[in-house]
Design brief:
Strand 2 and strand 3 form a beta hairpin. The protein has helices at about 15-20, 40-50; strands at about 1-5, 25, 30-35, 55-60. The protein has two helices and four strands; from the N terminus they run βαββαβ.
């Protein structure tokens, strides 16, 4: 799975809370996907994408 945070992030931090192995807050204060999900955290990365309040996390197989 490939994960990308696109423009529009409001820096709520939900993705970082849900899956810190994939998401972090960048130097600009906005969320970024810094790692590719693996079999151990793919479900939580998907949960973070689905829970994003502004729907800016894109997942691709």
């Amino acid at each position: 799975m490939q994960v990308t945070v696109v423009e529009g992030c409001i820096a709520c931090g939900l993705c970082v809370e849900t899956c810190p192995e994939v998401f972090r807050m960048g130097d600009d204060g906005l969320a970024e996907a810094y790692a590719r999900p693996n079999e151990n955290n793919e479900a939580s990365a998907q949960e973070a994408a689905e829970g994003c309040p502004v729907s800016v996390i894109i997942t691709e197989p």
